[in-house]
Amino acid sequence: MSNDEKLDDIPISTVDSPSVVLELIHQLKIKDVMTTMVLTGEKNQSMRHIQALMRENKVTGIPIVENDQLLGIVSIEDIISALDNGCIESPVGERMTKNVIHLQDDMPLSFAITYLNKYRYGRFPVLNKDNNLVGILTSTDVIRNLLIEMNREVLRLEKLQKGTENAAPSTFSEMEFTTAHYNFELAGRASTEIKKALKQRNFDPKLIRRVAIACYELEINQVVHSNGGVMRCSIMPDKVIITAADTGPGIEDVNQALKEGYSTANEYIRSLGFGAGMGLANTKRVSDDFTINSALGKGTTVRSVVFVNSSKEDH
To answer: Do the strands 239-246 and 289-295 form a parallel or antiparallel pair, or are they unpaired?
Structure first.
């Protein structure tokens, strides 16, 4: 199963990167950074024809489509294999890679980085909700667009800092966000907005990071494992409370679910780079106070509290 030649990891982490980068990779969508002008081939064309297209356009992978539907992909590895086996004149449909790993255009950019680091392919086809091919994403696309957006974000933060230098962190605030099952377009929105609110109130960066980790893990858990739910954040002078309440199937064994590495995620979720069984464990790790209540068929409610004066670290 190959989308392209293997590359080194993209030097961006979806966990340990600076906060500005983390905000951007959860805020930007794949459709914001992908290449939309896609060179494609047809299943009845010969492998030699695709080889010539690669050479002429200086690319190392070409998606094969029919009526905008992705049928497969031909990579440089497929061309080499056809040459070695004397099949370079064979129709593409007989030699292409059919089991193609792809991205969806409304996924957060963090998903693309997870894919690039996990599979290390040179490019990924991007499909829309109708499964039509709408773009190609490479590591170059990610890095180039992140640099552009980081420059804009730094300028924005500099202006914001000037206007909020005297802001008091004691301002009370309540925030609420909804999530939906497998709605990856909204995934990460709550954690991004909560981080912004905490920064505007000049909370300590270590506290902000811990709250962001808890919020993001709980938010993704709702998207992946529940039927949808609500994320609530209470910002107080002495603490920040994150409450995640969903209408999911509930957790059969809470103690087991809290163990690192335990997961009920299916293969689709694992292919996205999630389902490692660290969500609840990570949330508990960064929390000063952590409670979870769950009932089969009735959903799950998790409460994470981070105290302002806590000496607890996020690792």
So the answer is: unpaired
Average pLDDT in the 259-279 region? 58
> How far apart, in whole angstroms, are the C-alpha atoms of residue 233 and residue 243?
6
129 and 142 Cβ atoms separated by less than 8 Å: no
Structure tokens at 253: 């064994």
pLDDT reported for residue 173: 83
> How far, in Å, are 66, 78, 155, 308 from residue 161 at the CA level?
51, 52, 10, 21
CA pair distance 201, 159, nearest whole angstrom: 15
| 294: CB partners within 8 A, 6+ apart | 250, 251, 254, 300, 301
Q: Are strands 289-295 and 228-235 parallel, antiparallel or unpaired?
A: unpaired
**pTM for this model (two decimals):** 0.55
Q: Is 241 left (phi over 0), alpha (psi -120 to 50) or beta?
A: beta
